[in-house]
Design a protein that fits this description.
The protein is α+β, with helices and mostly antiparallel strands and 339 residues long. The protein has 6 helices and 12 strands. Helix 1 packs across helix 4 and helix 4 crosses helix 6.
Amino acid sequence: MTLADLPHRRRNLLTGEWLLVSPHRAKRPWQGEASPPPVPRAPAHDPACHLCPGNVRATGERNPDYDGSFVFANDFAALLSEGGTDPSVGGIFETRPAAGEAQVICFAPDHSATLARLPGSAVVNVVDTWCSLSAELGARWAHVQVFENKGAMMGASSPHPHGQVWASDFVPQVPAREDAQQRDWLAAHGTVLLDDVIAAELSAGERVVESNAHWIAVVPHWAAWPFETLLIARDDVARLEELTEPARAALAEIIGRLLKRYDGLFSCDFPYSMGWHGAPHSLGTDTAHWRLHAHFLPPLLRSSTVRKHMVGFELLGEIQRDITPESAAERLRAVEIAP
């Protein structure tokens, strides 16, 4: 019996947290929730969609007839330019002000599109938009979080292809933990943590899903979600805006291939949350320990209708997964996609 058969724990090098892997549980029968089958593909333009070109949003503002990506201030932003409270003084309950701003990025005018189905030039346009917003908002705020929630299963409020950017005057907990872990690794080893991860993954090969000259996509050794992937820059870059033109083109190419593998796994528009982690802008030029990377966190477990639930032990103890990261990577690599 090996780790592929027996329960064991793995440590997340980016956060320092542990998770439980229980491969034998993948064989258990399932009589729990099964989500409805995926809906048919949407039309290219939906007159009821708040994000389609020319349509009116909930605020009464009309979208322009855009033909590429379109960025606008989030009409219902989670962060405002002013925080809502003064720091608490004394007592056991602590509050702090939180300020920032949020933007919405429509990836394309086609309501039926996804990043997986957009042509490469359109994905490059999205990448360029991510990079521009990271630089622009990073000049004003401590941290910039670029992300996409795709699919109703992941809470997307609209099927129109879009993502978001939240900029804040604080560094959120997950990137703050990643900052500390990467900084500690450089101090202890004299090397960049994710550079060492890349070298180890390329040597092992079993968790690599896609790679090119500038990027590598792996199911990380510590993956929490069944088919989670980590997309890491192979160049010495800490933030999106540092990417060269060739690296941006290579990024668009590898994102397209990775997302096509997701879609092919269960023959559906694969839902996920994805987001970029780069060095917080509050660090200034103190970024030698950082390597730019993106997390893809899809919920599907057994089929297009059965997802992984983070409940029970996961909420009260620690993250637990049923299939090993190695088997997940093998299944993703086995998906046939167009060259």
